[in-house]
Amino acid sequence: MSDGVMKRMGMIFRAKANKALDRAEDPRETLDYSYQKQLELLQKVRRGVADVATSRKRLELQLNQLQGQSAKLEDQGRKALALGREDLAREALTRRSALQQQVTDLETQHQTLQGEEEKLTLAAQRLQAKVDAFRTKKETIKATYTAAQAQTRIGEAFSGISEEMGDVGMAIQRAEDKTAQLQARAGAIDELMASGALDDPSGMAKDDITAELDRLSGGSDVELELQRMKAELSGGSSAGQQAIESGQNGAAQSSPQQDRPRFDKQ
Amino acid sequence: MIVRIMGEGQVKLDDAHFTELNKLDDELLAEMESGDVEGFRRTLGALLDAVRRMGTPLPDDALEPSELILPSPDATLGEVREMLSDDGLIPG
């Protein structure tokens, strides 16, 4: 096939579709979905084991019954012979021989079922181990992905680099690659910013400790403010009204109760 | 192979027909690149007719990815050229 209009248009469509899919897909959801599917499969295998075991037990009951009948016929033949009734004895032994054939058939079936049951039990155990391993791996990847994503978001928020993802195959492969990619990118952005090759447009790059401290102090400001408002409200409606008014007027026209503007943080 | 004609739908084509279709496709590409509007219109019509004639239409609710895609019958040379430019069919 030459690279004519048909093929080139097809390729462009596929590339775009992959890109769109890649953007929409959250590997954590894909992993959870895969895990769900594996659990369903495990359930099916277990149900299979139970079905085979039930059939085996039913066969064992039938076999017991047939063997009982066979013993009874043998006894009857012996008694008939003792009474000199050879014809009756022959009849009893003929019936017994037909039963014996059935017993042999059932025994073969029983053996086959037993083999199947063992194989299925083993398969179920192996699958269980795999599903368990997958669950652990899935949780690790999810945690790493979430961390890498957060790290990348922080880096990208400062540098303004837009999101761009690669193209991978299976769910786990995809998630692992994405995670590694995000980590690598987060690392690369940090390095570039540290080296000065990448400008920080916000002009306020902070290390993570400073950022965390800022966040914490921001939080305590909110708490203090909340406490103050609560105190004002419980102190009487006129004081509350005043506080609201002073808030509306802004920091420039602070009320006499305030020593300094409260909303001084950017 | 499944081919989509934009705005029309999908058809299933036997691989044996591709020699003939490729010839028309190459012609179409050459006309597009040289800017031969008349030739482009004629060849696109011939290519679409050939696909419709040789292929079996797929039901509208079929969910099959198209391996090849063809412009709609009323697409202009400029539109197709734009679709094949670097930015592709869907921007971004």
TrEMBL record, chain A:
Origin superkingdom: Bacteria
Record keywords: Coiled coil
A UniProt-annotated Pfam family: PspA_IM30
Keyword Transport annotated: no
Span list, region Disordered: 228-266
InterPro entries: PspA_VIPP1
Keyword Coiled coil: yes
Biased composition range(s): Polar residues: 235-258
Coiled-coil regions listed in the entry: 49-144
Family (UniProt): Belongs to the PspA/Vipp/IM30 family.
Protein name, as recorded: Phage shock protein A
The species this protein was found in: Streptomyces nigrescens
Organism classification: Bacteria, Bacillati, Actinomycetota, Actinomycetes, Kitasatosporales
Automatic annotation (TrEMBL), chain B:
Domain of life: Bacteria
Residue ranges of domain PspA-associated in the record: 1-92
Pfam families, A to Z: PspAA (PF22743)
Name used for this protein in its record: PspA-associated domain-containing protein
